[in-house]
Amino acid sequence: MTIIQLEYLLAVSNCGSFSAASELCFVTQPSLSMQIKNLEEELGVILLDRSKKPVIPTDAGEIVIKNAREAIKAYNYIKESVAELKGEIAGHLRLGVIPTIAPYLLHRFIPGFLNQYPKVELEVKEMKTADIFTALGRDSLDAAIIAGGMCPDDIAEQELFNDRFYAYVSPMSSLYDRSNVRIEDIDMKELLLLSDGHCLRDQILELCQSRRATHQSCSFESGSLDTLMRIVDSTGGMTIIPEMSLPFIPEQRQGQVKTLAKGATSRKITIAVRRTYVKSSLINALKDSIMECASGH
Question: Any idea which fold 163-265 has?
Answer without folding.
Answer: D-Maltodextrin-Binding Protein; domain 2 (3.40.190)
